[in-house]
Amino acid sequence: MIHIFEVSKLKLINNQKITVKIKVSILLLVLISTFVVSCNTSPYAESELVDLSFYNSRIVLDIRYATKNNYFQEIFYPVPRCFVRRIVALKLDSIQTELETGNLGLKIFDGYRPLSVTRKMWEILPDERYVANPQKGSRHNRGVAVDVTLVDLTGRELLMPTAFDEFTERAAHHYQDLPEDILKNRATLKNIMEKYGFKALEDEWWHYDLTNYQQYPILDIDFETIAKQTKP
Q1: Are 63 and 109 in contact (CB under 8 A)?
Q2: What span, in angstroms and rounded, lies between the C-alpha atoms of 164 and 201?
Q3: Which pTM does this prediction carry?
């Protein structure tokens, strides 16, 4: 009887060890899964700078600061590419998809702008009415601002109050002395951008930021470095 009892006790102990091992294994799997999910949905994943064209190649790009066709008549970017935070790229992709149901689309004039470029602009025109003071930084330096307009399916721009980067009273959202079709176009752009979490800059109809832009740090990473690190 003693021998049988000892055997039974030994089996019970072994079963308990196996149960503990199983529970530990399950716990480890849960922890690993949680870690993987948290990595994929982390703020860093959303804040990484990406090439907008990798997310939606149908969005028209007209990166003016890669040409001399801009307010300063100077070339500031080495390549005509639009880099933005990943979360911005995802939102713009959704906006483009919705606009296409109404035979419209987006055209981007500017996205992320390195702080070093803002410094160069400030050297040319040290006036905060037109250029962000580099000591404070630009919203474009945070990678969550875009200069944008609307186009039809042929890529032709819809009429807006002014040309891009025309710093006059007509460029402000409160300006109403405009033809009805232009007011409608401006409102269409504003409504859909706000729908997806962007906020308009009052004095520039083309400029939109994420509503929480202050949460993103100012960056000074040059285009060449981003291009090397950016993958589809």
Answers
A1: yes
A2: 13
A3: 0.79
Whether residue 223 contacts residue 83, with contact meaning beta carbons closer than 8 Å, is answered with: yes
Q: What is the dihedral of CA 173, 175, 180, 186, to 10 degrees?
A: -20
Write the pLDDT tens digit of every residue in 3-22: 555 545 555 555 555 554 55
Residues 119-162: tens digit of each pLDDT: 999 999 998 888 999 999 999 999 999 999 999 999 999 999 99
> Which amino acid is present at 45?
A
Q: Give whole-number Cα distances, 168 to 15, 108, 124, 173, 208, in Å.
A: 80, 20, 19, 11, 18
CA 164 to chain centre: 20
CA 13, 15, 19, 22 dihedral sign is positive
Q: What is the mean pLDDT of residues 214-226?
A: 94
- In angstroms, the CA 166 to CA 43 distance is 35
Structure tokens that stand for 102 in this block: 């109404």
Q: Which residues pair with 50 in a beta bridge?
A: 84
Q: Which residue in the block uniquely carries the two structure tokens 């307009």?
A: 149
